[in-house]
Amino acid sequence: MTDRTAKLTIEDKDFELPIFSPTAGPDVVDIRKLYAQAGVFTYDPGFTSTASCDSTITFIDGDKGELLHRGYPIDQLAASSHYLEVCYLLLYGELPSAAQLEDFESRVTKHTMLHEQMVYFFRGFRRDAHPMAIMTGVVGAMSAFYHDSTDISDPWQREVASIRLVAKMPTIAAWAYKYSIGQPLVYPRNDMDYASNFLRMCFSVPAEEYEVNPILSRAMDRIFTLHADHEQNASTSTVRLASSSGANPFACIAAGIACLWGPAHGGANQACLEMLREIGTPDRIPEFIARAKDKSDPFRLMGFGHRVYKNFDPRAKVMKQSADEVLDLLGVEDNPILQVAKELEEAALADPYFTDKKLFPNVDFYSGIILEAMGFPTSMFTPIFAVSRTVGWISQWKEMIEDPAMKIGRPRQLYKGATMRDYVDIEKR
Ligand code: SDX
Description:
The chain has a three-stranded antiparallel beta sheet. It has helices spanning 34-38, 74-80, 83-92, 98-109, 119-123, 131-141, 155-180, 194-203, 214-226, 234-243, 249-260, 268-279, 285-293, 314-329, 336-349, 352-356, 364-373, 381-401, and strands at residues 5-10, 13-20, 28-29, 58-61, 66-69, 72-73. It has three domains: 5-51, Rubrerythrin, domain 2; 70-264 and 390-400, Citrate Synthase, domain 1; 268-374, CATH 1.10.230.10. By secondary structure, it is mainly alpha-helical. The protein starts with a strand and ends in a 28-residue tail after the last helix. The structure holds s-citryldethia Coenzyme A. S-citryldethia Coenzyme A (SDX) is lined by residues 230, 233, 264-266, 268, 292, 300-308, 357, 359, 362-364. The site of s-citryldethia Coenzyme A (SDX) has 21 residues, from loops. GO terms for molecular function: citrate synthase activity. Pfam families: Citrate_synt (PF00285). The active site is at 306, 364.
């Protein structure tokens, strides 16, 4: 509770609104009773100043460029942890002991297979279907196959659904890729780590043994870690809103995948690499910078800017280091796309338009360069983001479902339409 209040005066009436303080970040003004007391709504399209929930999972300080998962800085987790350990941290709140981690990894590994009949879903799509379309459909369809983990009131079913989703997403994403290139689907193995299994399911072919390159599996695991969760972003808010009606977890995660697909959100990694390819050479950078600044041109620098970060996205810093390392270790000398990215970043950060508006590279600016060097087509960039973010969506979903105060989300509006009027018969129109 709190004894601090904010005073709101509307015409001649004063209203007192409680103020709550977080463990980190801005205070919040509790407006839950405002409509009942004052008969007014607050107005915040895009939720630029709205705290939609309580949470203990991820904290972002946009001014400092800080990202914490359960208090641990993302750069430390990227350097010292690995994706499944970060999954445990996000899901259960603490870093696991060795025994807890071994048990968790074993449970995830043993759930990586899909119900064999789900193969037919993939075959129902055209070969040129975008993998995100396939993932949205197949993940939604999981609620038709895994009935024993759809009752959200049962803690055990919530736990099983969580493990199934974290475990099966790489298989679904890899199968969407294999299907799109007409190659046989590759089944997960129980003797491989999460990232290596995913690479093998994507790149191995029956004609030869697939050797996982440790550089690539480490880079893949780091990309998974960097995308795992990010507070109340658009897709996570979509999952929370869908879940607030009591919908089953598979349907809610499918809603999150659909939202992530947008180019303003998770689809930016694909759009960013396509933009870098379109720029092509450093001499064309000024032309694209000018277009990004031109209000009459809808073009924006993809991979730049962020609703919350008004400083460097800490994930972009790690991703940039990783891009240098991976390309160097792969012997991809002088990658022209990486060169364009670095010079574009330099040019933008020397331009007051971007620095005054606090537009810095975000997580999507360098990730596509690494993924392309690893052999992925651009259409697989956002599916990989979805694989990683599933644990974040599920952790936030669990947190909300387990909150006794949970209510169905139901925003209101500033109505600007027609006021009451009578129906007019067609003869009189
Ligand atoms: C992700 O929310 C999350 O946490 C998301 C995410 C996660 O992990 O879940 O971090 C993942 O989605 C990263 C963002 C990926 N998207 C892109 O890279 C697409 C390009 N970026 C923009 O579309 C934009 O920056 C957003 C969508 C990311 C943020 O938009 P906002 O906060 O709504 O900001 P805005 O559109 O109000 O822009 C503020 C100003 C505007 O100019 P003015 O009207 O004030 O004159 O900055 C300009 C914008 O025109 N601007 C850009 C720009 N981004 C904003 N101008 C050129 N290029 C850009 N990229």
